Amino acid sequence: MPKISGFSKLSKTAKVDWICKNYLASNKKAKETLANYWNTDSKLQKLHDEFTENTISNYYLPFGIAPNFTINDKTYVIPMAIEESSVIAAASKAAKFWDDKGGFKAEVISTTKVGHVHFNYEGDPKKLISFFDKLKPQLLAEAKPITQNMEKRGGGILDIELIDKTNQLDNYFQLHCSFDTKDAMGANFINSCLEQFGQTFEREAAKFEAFQNTLPEIIMCILSNYVPECLVRAEVSCPINRLGETTEEAHKFAKKFKQAIEIATIEPYRAVTHNKGIMNGVDAVVLATGNDFRAVEAGVHAYASKDGIYKSLTQVSLAKETFKFWLEIPLAIGTIGGLTNLHPLVKIAMEILGKPDAQELMKITAVAGLAQNFAAVNSLVTSGIQKGHMKMHLMNILNQLEASQDERLKAIEYFKTHTATHAKVIAFVEKLRN
Amino acid sequence: MPKISGFSKLSKTAKVDWICKNYLASNKKAKETLANYWNTDSKLQKLHDEFTENTISNYYLPFGIAPNFTINDKTYVIPMAIEESSVIAAASKAAKFWDDKGGFKAEVISTTKVGHVHFNYEGDPKKLISFFDKLKPQLLAEAKPITQNMEKRGGGILDIELIDKTNQLDNYFQLHCSFDTKDAMGANFINSCLEQFGQTFEREAAKFEAFQNTLPEIIMCILSNYVPECLVRAEVSCPINRLGETTEEAHKFAKKFKQAIEIATIEPYRAVTHNKGIMNGVDAVVLATGNDFRAVEAGVHAYASKDGIYKSLTQVSLAKETFKFWLEIPLAIGTIGGLTNLHPLVKIAMEILGKPDAQELMKITAVAGLAQNFAAVNSLVTSGIQKGHMKMHLMNILNQLEASQDERLKAIEYFKTHTATHAKVIAFVEKLRN
Lengths: 434, 434
Prior knowledge:
Two copies of one chain form a homodimer.
Chain A: H1 12-23, H2 30-36, H3 42-49, E1 55-71, E2 74-81, H4 87-99, E3 105-108, E4 113-120, H5 125-142, H6 144-152, E5 156-164, E6 172-180, H7 187-207, E7 217-223, E8 231-239, H8 247-266, H9 268-288, H10 293-304, E9 314-317, E10 322-330, H11 344-352, H12 358-381, H13 385-400, H14 405-414, H15 422-433
Antiparallel strand pairs in A: 1-2, 3-8, 4-6, 4-7, 5-6, 8-10, 9-10
Helix pairs in contact in A: 4-12, 5-7, 8-9, 9-10, 9-12, 13-14
């Protein structure tokens, strides 16, 4: 297969022509398919094309909504962008279940974000400390052109600390820098500050006579997506006896639910899938609101491993006859900057949520994660996960089989009382056809 | 704000009407915006609507391509679905850099997936062991209707082991089940098998006389997204002196690059962002090929924490004057099932990749992750991350400012030699306008 030079400089049409000719020749309709996904509004399409390099089409994720969420006594409809068939249904179900039990409560615990200037220094640490004392006000002063807008909004640089890490890696030090980025996720802001720190640091180090020839050397300046001090907590609670038709059933459910969480706390094989379910809800909101799900995923999963073993992010308590179930996760997300003011569906998502600030969005997102986890564990300890999952995925399998309207209705009816598997759906439709 | 009952039963139009009336009343164009994103081909739109519940529109992610990847001496164009502006550009740059240095090598190390029947048992473990010995052939036999198609493709159930976990949690045991799911990601297959195991287990336990009244109780049956035995490795290598214009420059770069990886190995704050960069590449391919990025993310990050400290997934060696840089990650992804045969752009993505099987897709995906990490660390230890990042994000800021063609051209020219920040781009355009 051919290579190409200067591909990114080509027009979109030329890019599509090249890929169709060289890599999609066996599919005569490929060009048409790619174009079918273009928006008919060419200005809108251009906006989406320019989000990134070498865009040739729009990848559709379903943009859906989960209604009936009560969070801190306010009603929300939560927008979700997610391809997994059962996620929105599960969220809606959990919202409804908790609606008459006080709904969800959520609070932001902290909002500090961090970044580092990572550097090497082989000399006397005392010299470094006296250099840093002199440097710190200069770092802050020279970052002013970057920070002044953020400061107007009440944010900015919170602190810069010198940290000696030489006990872990030879000659390795950091400037550990903390930030409040208000309603922005803040990656560009933090990285711009850090790179400015790097420049000031290098220039001043060269002038600092005590270093003589043993200058500190900067390795890199970069924000961290690990934000254990940018935390949000979401919770549901109710009297245990409200969890079932009878007191006995309710207590049995609560006990089994607690066992499921305990297993996810001590067994990483289970914890990973347990937390994956939480992230089904979290990422769906993160995507719909134009935030960066890789950043959120990395920070959340690292947080799940912070005690030396990877474990559940949700916890449960049954004390005082009360079922209490909560989630605590780090979430560095924003409601301004990035794609949030640019992607028209992100704007719609923000409007559906009542134009939240970053802290409110943190709460909503955490609630989506908790709701998802409640729904998943609820299914797991009762009917099993496949019933609900395959109910939603059934339509996909029927579409794949190009089932007629009549076949679809019969299959939907039949699989109301039979758990679907891929093979069973195929067999059912084939039987209808013969 | 109002709640609603039976929302999922409404038609899409009725759903859109409800949300527009109740949650988007301040935006007179909301309905139009949502509809603008519908595909004009109503059959195609219906397919996408049915991916999940309560779909009201299509969320666009840019679908782009990164050309010029050499992987195991074969040329690939890698399709990527990703909103972050610099990811495809970085991938393309890394592909080009390694192209004349032997390209990327990748190998699948293992392909075993796992799932568990989690249960409690308060009786004598010896009774459980003798029960399990009797049960095991029955588990396999009764799962036959589910496994027979998979077995035709060479996969199926590999083993079922009884594991005593009571040293970690009172009365907790597992059936640890391993599977080969061939070209399917296999979540539905594994969960269907496990739920069948659960049914057989419960029925047989009730009949097993030695248990008397102390029956084992199943808590849940569920696959694990932690797949440390479904591993892939991607690698690049070249003589160190090929990394720069001069030998000195090349060695300096290699040393700094190694320091960056060492920092990401001992410092979780750095490791999280380092691995996030890897996942930028991995997820872009996972999304474009219709796989489940939450499953992949959870498994990969848990793997990064497996030694008790969260650390870098890439490693580097400079032995024998050779720069060797590699990534090892667990990847449970498929090329059949799920959305892969359903989403027309996923089909296109698979065709662009030459219709790979699951193992080939594992290799390609790992390479995308390694390429992304190489590009990121390369930028970090040389020019800094913001230059490349803001170069791509510049177009987004200009779109946000609704810059004219003339303003755009001037801004692009100016920021070729100046590092852009959000504030600087705004100031530049405002200056042009005054």
